[in-house]
């Protein structure tokens, strides 16, 4: 079963069960508290709180989607067997239409009957001082014949919110062949950070408070790439039909980790640019520039065995039928402009990197600021010279630089 067939089967399954198919939202969310869309529920956030009415907007209380997602926390991990920056999230959602029983029954039916997969075990929330144990989900799973029900705490079986505040609740995770494939979130609460009386700052402990939601909701998520790995019986996500054509364009002699980074990053770059992100030195543009320059450096160090355009063409071929917003012309134009801009300084930067006797955070930042060498490349190529270099220190140095630059602008234009 191909990834496209899995995607279509999921949408069809829920459409036949009273869910409206909602297109993916942009990777740039309408939420200033987060940089990117990281989960399927983000575009539905205000339906859970009652600010928006699903029946008015969708004619139904239930929805299903395949959401484009991007997670910056995984950039440094890309190259192993499971981490991605850009991925697709399958999800079914309900805003007062149904709750735990139906959500669990749907998950069980889709996994065991439509995909013909065995469920190894499931997990439910064990409870704590603030939220009671989810005995209801445990009972429902057992009634369906799933006897291996494990219990876990808040770190594993309580999800949300996305951003600084929002809907959240206990979860139930479904494991198939040892892999977590589905996370069912039971949105029962609204999480908000407690604010001091003057409403100007968070209290000393940053205490989070939970209040019950008037409308209980369902928010589920399955990573398409991970699900395809399980369905197709592959040992890693990079051997599924989504990534295999990309990897075949790269030479066999190229290190596996490098090939995986390139395969991941060209997808992320294509989708970010298509959703309106431009390379820059701040926020989403900075993340895009990191991906683009990592791609360029890894290809350069490998002797440029394949032109970037050929990698992007494979992404378009694989994805544009489902995501018609992919803009081939703009993606190639933006990448080429950044490539031309970066090549002028790359060689100088690599020479400076090779000459440096040691690489501390200041010298690493100088290589970034003066030559555009990403932190990851300095760390990787620096070897023993960069053994004490840490990402958090580099980010702190970057933040200091931003503050100095901002102060200079204010002094120039602010008057005092």
Structure notes:
44% of the residues lie in helices and 18% in strands. It is of the alpha+beta class. The protein is globular, with a radius of gyration of 23 Å. It has 2 domains: 3-231, Bira Bifunctional Protein, Domain 2 (BirA Bifunctional Protein, domain 2, 2-Layer Sandwich), CATH 3.30.930.10; 239-409. The protein is built from 15 helices and 9 strands. The N and C termini lie far apart (65 Å).
Offer a concise description of the structure.
The chain has 416 residues and is α+β, with helices and mostly antiparallel strands.
Keywords for this structure?
single chain; BirA Bifunctional Protein, domain 2; Ala-tRNA-ligase_IIc_anticod-bd
Architecture (CATH level 2) name of the largest domain? 2-Layer Sandwich
Kindly state the number of beta strands: 9
Largest sheet: 9 strands, mixed
CATH class of the largest domain: Alpha Beta
- Give the termini separation: 65 Å
Gyration radius, in Å:
23 Å
Written as H for each helix and E for each strand, in order along the chain, the element string is HEHHEEHEHEHEEEEHHHHHHHHH
EC number: 6.1.1.7
GO cellular component, one term: cytoplasm
Keywords: Aminoacyl-tRNA synthetase, ATP-binding, Ligase, Nucleotide-binding, Protein biosynthesis, RNA-binding, tRNA-binding
Enzyme class: ligase
Strand and helix layout:
Layout: H1 3-15, E1 20-21, H2 45-48, H3 54-58, E2 62-70, E3 86-95, H4 100-114, E4 121-125, H5 135-143, E5 149-152, H6 154-157, E6 158-159, E7 166-176, E8 179-193, E9 208-223, H7 224-231, H8 244-248, H9 256-274, H10 283-301, H11 308-319, H12 328-355, H13 361-371, H14 375-382, H15 391-414
Parallel strand pairs: 1-2, 4-5
Antiparallel strand pairs: 2-3, 3-9, 4-7, 6-7, 7-8, 8-9
């Amino acid at each position: 079963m191909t990834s496209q067939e899995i995607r279509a089967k999921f949408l069809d399954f829920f459409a036949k069960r009273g869910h409206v198919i909602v297109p993916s939202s942009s990777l740039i969310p309408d939420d200033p508290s987060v940089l990117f869309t990281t989960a399927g529920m983000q575009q539905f956030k205000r339906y859970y709180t009652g600010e928006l009415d699903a029946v008015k907007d969708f004619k139904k209380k239930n929805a299903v989607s395949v959401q484009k997602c991007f997670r910056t926390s995984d950039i440094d991990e890309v190259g192993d067997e499971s981490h991605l920056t850009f991925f697709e999230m399958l999800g079914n959602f309900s805003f007062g239409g149904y709750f735990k029983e139906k959500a669990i029954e749907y998950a069980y039916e889709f996994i065991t009957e439509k995909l013909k997969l065995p469920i190894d075990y499931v997990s439910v929330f064990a409870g704590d001082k603030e939220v009671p144990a989810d005995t209801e989900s445990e009972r429902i799973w057992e009634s369906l014949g799933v006897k291996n029900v494990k219990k876990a705490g808040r770190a594993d079986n309580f999800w949300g919110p996305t951003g600084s505040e929002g809907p959240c609740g206990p979860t139930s995770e479904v494991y198939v062949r040892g892999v977590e494939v589905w996370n069912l979130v039971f949105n029962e609460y609204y999480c908000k950070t407690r604010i001091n009386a003057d409403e100007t700052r968070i209290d000393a402990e940053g205490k989070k408070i939970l209040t019950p939601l008037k409308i209980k909701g369902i928010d589920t998520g399955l990573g398409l790439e991970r699900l395809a790995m399980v369905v197709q019986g592959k040992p890693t996500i990079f051997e599924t039909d989504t990534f295999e054509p990309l990897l075949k364009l790269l030479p066999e002699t190229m290190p596996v980790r490098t090939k995986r980074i390139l395969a991941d990053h060209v997808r992320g770059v294509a989708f970010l640019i298509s959703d309106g992100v431009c390379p820059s030195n701040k926020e989403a543009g900075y993340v895009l520039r990191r991906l683009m320059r990592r791609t360029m450096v890894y290809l350069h160090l490998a002797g440029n065995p394949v032109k970037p355009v050929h990698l992007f063409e494979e992404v378009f071929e694989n994805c544009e039928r489902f995501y018609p917003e992919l803009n081939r012309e703009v993606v190639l134009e933006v990448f080429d402009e950044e490539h031309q801009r970066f090549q002028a300084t790359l060689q100088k930067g690599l020479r400076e990197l090779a000459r440096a006797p040691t690489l501390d955070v200041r010298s690493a930042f100088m290589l970034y600021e003066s030559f555009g060498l990403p932190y990851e490349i300095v760390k990787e190529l620096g070897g023993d010279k960069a053994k004490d270099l840490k990402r958090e220190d580099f980010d702190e140095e970057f933040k200091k630089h931003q503050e100095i630059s901002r102060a200079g602008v204010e002094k120039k234009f602010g008057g005092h």
